[in-house]
Write a structure and sequence with these properties.
The protein has about 290 residues and is α/β, with parallel strands linked by helices. The strands form two sheets. A seven-stranded mixed sheet has the order 4-5-3-2-1-11-12. It has a five-stranded mixed sheet with strand order 6-7-8-10-9, with helices on one face. Helix 7 packs across helix 8. About 35% of the residues are buried.
Amino acid sequence: MKPREQFMDDAHGLFGNTGDVADGDEKRDPLRFRTIWISDIHLGTTGCQAERLLEFLRATESETLYLVGDIIDGWQLKRRWYWEQSHNNVVQTVLKKAKKGTNVIFVPGNHDEVIRQFIDLDFGGIKIRDELVHVTADGRRMLVLHGDRFDGVIACAKWLAYVGDSLYTMILKFNQWFNSWRARAGLPYWSLSQYLKSKVKNAVNYISSFEDALADEAKKKGLDGVICGHIHKPEIRDIGGVTYCNDGDWVESLSALVEEPSGELRLVSWQEIMQLKKAGKAKAAARDLALA
């Protein structure tokens, strides 16, 4: 592992400075939330939906932005270097938000575990933390963590996790080809991996065990709920009196967890945010026409 000083030099060289990001069609009236949680972006992989994430980030604002792990996929980058300009733009957009006053908190995951050597430090205005408690506007105390340490495969057989990651990457590549064909045929996006997860009994049991373990951890700490990522399955549900929230991913689900000013927690998708942005533009155009 590289020393901290070398890592910081590499990071500055890779990400550049925040002034390099073009605003483009950045929103006039962004959708505002008290808090936004996103995770499992997997920058550095072909499956990362960086362009859509950029649209989401530019269409929204929040007092606090949580990056709940697996933001950069160090596992894949070790195998093969892949870094599109759009991936660079995502990093720079987040840095720009931090510079403009958004409270950005990065909770590293297993794919970007190298960042864990910087826990409790700040980098470019971004706070790096292992786990923490978020208090919602309505007073609920929520544990925020990536969740990989509650994954039995990661904890007990990391080699198997690497094999699973390689298989998942293969499925995603097939999925990209398959959905390109569906798009040409006028059909909507369909996720093979999500379908397999829902149909394979062991995968369903794995997800259920993971969710139960996270909810139990929050209960042991005397908290009201837990917010995590890791398994790429967006969810909000009650588990034994604990509110379990998973913000999904930016490979397939294209989802985020948001907190409204009232404290309400809900899941949003890239599609929903784009529709709201489009509706807002139409409303603004109608207002401008009426005032003309």
